[in-house]
């Protein structure tokens, strides 16, 4: 699933088109998931607004936790969708499948598991160690 092979030559257009279809499909699924989560969040807010009479601290805390969870889900979906958007842009640029850190080819197996990967395993591990 890379736009280049290990020698740096371009993959056939049919393969690039197949990769693009797969990435776009993931992006579209995340967009639909986001739209559904936004709708659920709006319903939750409407129920909250109409059902606050008699709330005690525990009820308020539960509603706050539910609202925070819904917002966290929306952010997570948007982050994942942005990763696929970035992968699609890299595919169009011809840089998809190459590590942004060291410019080495990202193993096909890694891209099959994590299609929006932008780094090889070594660079990813280095970033994670630095962040810890």
Automatic annotation (TrEMBL):
Superkingdom as given in the UniProt entry: Bacteria
Residues forming coiled coils: none
Domain named Zinc finger DksA/TraR C4-type: residues: 94-129
Zn finger (dksA C4-type) start-end: 99-123
MF annotations from Gene Ontology: zinc ion binding
Keywords, in A-Z order: Metal-binding, Zinc, Zinc-finger
InterPro entries, A to Z: Znf_DskA_TraR (IPR000962), Znf_DskA_TraR_CS (IPR020458)
Signal sequence range: none
Name of the protein in question: Conjugal transfer protein TraR
Record organism: Micromonospora arborensis
Biological classification of the source: Bacteria, Bacillati, Actinomycetota, Actinomycetes, Micromonosporales
């Amino acid at each position: 699933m890379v736009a280049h092979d290990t020698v740096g030559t371009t993959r056939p257009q049919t393969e690039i088109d197949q990769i693009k279809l797969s990435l776009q499909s993931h992006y579209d699924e995340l967009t639909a998931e986001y739209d559904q989560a936004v709708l659920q969040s709006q319903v939750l807010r409407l129920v909250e607004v109409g059902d606050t009479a008699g709330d005690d601290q525990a009820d308020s805390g539960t509603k706050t936790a539910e609202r925070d969870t819904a917002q966290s889900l929306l952010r997570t979906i948007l982050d994942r969708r942005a990763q696929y958007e970035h992968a699609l842009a890299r595919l169009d640029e011809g840089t998809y499948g190459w590590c942004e850190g060291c410019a080495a080819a990202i193993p096909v197996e890694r891209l099959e598991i994590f299609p929006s990967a932008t780094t090889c395993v070594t660079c990813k591990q280095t970033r994670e160690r630095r962040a810890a």
